[in-house]
């Protein structure tokens, strides 16, 4: 029966961000999950070391979350948010406004990180139009940034291997550099931060008259390789946006809801964005709800008599879905009662020690980047020269397959291993996961280095 399902998956499915030739060679079908573990149809268990792609908070089958959905089901599963609202969507909006940066007072729902970014882009664009400054219609994007896979989000994305193909479809945006300290010439955090800020200032000084908004991930570039921004960078960007009258759109899709050790990553620097996108952890990793937050000033620019044509004409079928909002509400309640954010700060320290003890010393580990429980381990061919492995070696991918064999799932970005366990992972679970990672890195990099050595 398991083999029938595998055959069926190969025959009918096309998976996201997946070369299906790879899938056919290494198929996997998950059947159930409990806590921080997933189980496949053959009964093999895996640690969910990437929180099912950066979503999961309390582990799988969390009793309170399961019950919140069941209870909501007894009332209604879904009704629309077009021109009306529902009970959990309204209650959730109030709770969300309480925990977001103070200036963000309005909640616009959608269903994925990409849509929440599309909405932020369109709001920013139309805001300037509505207040009679329609020359401000371009965007500044950060190099190496990632905001989702719809065309608007891709247009402000800048990861070549994902985005290059769609070049002709995208609207053009200005690109500003982001400090990637490990690979910067000086290797100095302050210096590369200041250079990037100077560069951005020049761009804004020259072009701010036509710039509507700037987009930036909050404190960590995720899909771009878990690149943690040096202290003072995000707040520096905020200052420049204010100075040049450019709206700041902060993408908290990956970093929001405790992941980095603060409720939102922009809280690390007290940054108040004009628009903020969030998703992933909002429902504890249960259901597709995302939000775009904005300020009263932006909201008011759309508020007028209908015939003035200032309405925000945007919506999705499942916007404000009751099941999703109900589970998100329960998720937020658990954040308080189980002190999740404080827990992440403690776990982050444990993890930091584990990295030093188990991972840092390995011969092909070039850089370890961590903010809270959001971590990237960059593998390199040479620690001294920081030279990368040849791309075609697919070392990151091979290490992830080895980890799978050893009972842990995570997806790398290139040769950067991603470690983003569920926020509620215990010390022992973190330790077990790091030991699996250590073994996989050792085995695979040794084999790869040997074959590279023998070619030379
Ligand atoms: C995952 C992610 C997105 C896209 O979210 P989806 O729900 O996959 O559409 C956007 N921005 C960042 C920073 C992300 O990590």
From TrEMBL:
Entries under Gene3D superfamilies matching the protein: Aspartate Aminotransferase, domain 1 (3.90.1150.10), Type I PLP-dependent aspartate aminotransferase-like (Major domain) (3.40.640.10)
SUPFAM superfamilies: PLP-dependent transferases (SSF53383)
Binding site for substrate: 146, 280, 315, 411
Transmembrane segments: none
Major location (coarse): cytoplasm
Residues annotated for pyridoxal 5'-phosphate binding in this entry: 113-114, 251, 316-317
Residues bearing PTM N6-(pyridoxal phosphate)lysine: 280
Pathway assigned to this chain's UniProt record: Cofactor biosynthesis; biotin biosynthesis; 7,8-diaminononanoate from 8-amino-7-oxononanoate (SAM route): step 1/1
One Pfam family here: Aminotran_3
PANTHER family per UniProt: ADENOSYLMETHIONINE-8-AMINO-7-OXONONANOATE AMINOTRANSFERASE
Site entry: Participates in the substrate recognition with KAPA and in a stacking interaction with the adenine ring of SAM: 17
Gene Ontology terms, MF aspect: adenosylmethionine-8-amino-7-oxononanoate transaminase activity
Physiological role: Catalyzes the transfer of the alpha-amino group from S-adenosyl-L-methionine (SAM) to 7-keto-8-aminopelargonic acid (KAPA) to form 7,8-diaminopelargonic acid (DAPA). It is the only aminotransferase known to utilize SAM as an amino donor.
EC number: 2.6.1.62
Required co-factors: pyridoxal 5'-phosphate
Assembly and interaction partners: Homodimer.
NCBIfam families given in the database record: bioA (TIGR00508)
Similarity-based family: Belongs to the class-III pyridoxal-phosphate-dependent aminotransferase family. BioA subfamily.
Keywords, in A-Z order: Aminotransferase, Biotin biosynthesis, Cytoplasm, Pyridoxal phosphate, S-adenosyl-L-methionine, Transferase
The name this protein goes by in its record: Adenosylmethionine-8-amino-7-oxononanoate aminotransferase
Compartments, record wording: Cytoplasm
Catalytic activity of the protein: (8S)-8-amino-7-oxononanoate + S-adenosyl-L-methionine = S-adenosyl-4-methylsulfanyl-2-oxobutanoate + (7R,8S)-7,8-diammoniononanoate
């Amino acid at each position: 029966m398991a083999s029938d399902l595998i055959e069926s998956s190969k025959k009918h499915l096309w998976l996201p961000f997946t070369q299906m030739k790879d899938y056919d060679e290494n198929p996997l079908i998950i059947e159930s999950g409990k806590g921080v573990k997933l189980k496949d149809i053959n009964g093999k268990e895996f640690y969910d070391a990437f929180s099912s792609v950066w979503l999961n908070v309390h582990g799988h089958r969390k009793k309170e979350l399961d019950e919140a959905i069941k209870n909501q089901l007894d009332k209604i599963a879904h009704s629309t948010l077009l021109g009306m609202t529902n009970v959990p969507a309204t209650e959730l909006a109030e709770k969300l406004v309480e925990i977001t940066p103070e200036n963000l007072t309005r909640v616009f729902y959608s269903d994925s990180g990409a849509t929440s970014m599309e909405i932020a882009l369109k709001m920013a664009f139309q805001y300037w139009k509505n207040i009679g400054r329609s020359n401000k219609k371009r965007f500044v994007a950060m190099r190496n940034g990632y905001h989702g896979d719809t065309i608007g989000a891709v247009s402000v994305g800048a990861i070549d291997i994902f985005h290059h193909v769609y070049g002709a479809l995208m609207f053009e945006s200005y690109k500003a550099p982001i400090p990637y300290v490990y690979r910067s010439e000086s290797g100095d955090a302050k210096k590369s931060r200041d250079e990037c800020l100077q560069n951005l200032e020049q761009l804004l000084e020259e072009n701010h008259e036509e710039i509507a908004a700037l987009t930036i991930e909050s404190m960590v570039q995720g899909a771009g390789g878990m690149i943690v921004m040096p202290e003072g960078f995000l707040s520096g960007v905020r200052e420049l946006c204010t100075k040049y009258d450019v709206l700041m759109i902060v993408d908290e899709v990956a970093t929001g809801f405790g992941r980095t050790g603060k409720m939102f990553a922009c809280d690390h620097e007290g940054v108040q964005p004009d628009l903020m996108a969030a998703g992933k952890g909002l429902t504890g990793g249960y259901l597709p709800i995302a939000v775009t937050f904005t300020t009263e000033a932006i909201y008011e620019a759309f508020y007028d008599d209908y015939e003035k044509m200032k309405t925000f004409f945007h919506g999705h079928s499942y916007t404000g879905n009751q099941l999703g909002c109900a589970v998100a509400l329960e998720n937020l309640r658990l954040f308080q009662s189980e002190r999740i954010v404080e827990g992440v700060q403690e776990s982050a320290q444990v993890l930091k020690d584990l990295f030093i003890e188990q991972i840092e010393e390995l011969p092909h580990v070039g850089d370890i980047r961590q903010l809270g429980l959001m971590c990237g381990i960059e593998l390199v061919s040479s620690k001294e020269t920081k030279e990368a492995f040849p791309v075609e070696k697919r070392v990151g991918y091979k290490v992830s397959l080895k980890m799978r064999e050893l009972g842990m799932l995570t997806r790398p970005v290139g040769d950067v291993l991603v470690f983003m366990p569920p926020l509620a992972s215990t010390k022992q679970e973190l330790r077990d996961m790091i030991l699996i990672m250590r073994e996989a890195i050792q085995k695979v990099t040794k084999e790869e280095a040997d074959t590279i050595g023998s070619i030379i």
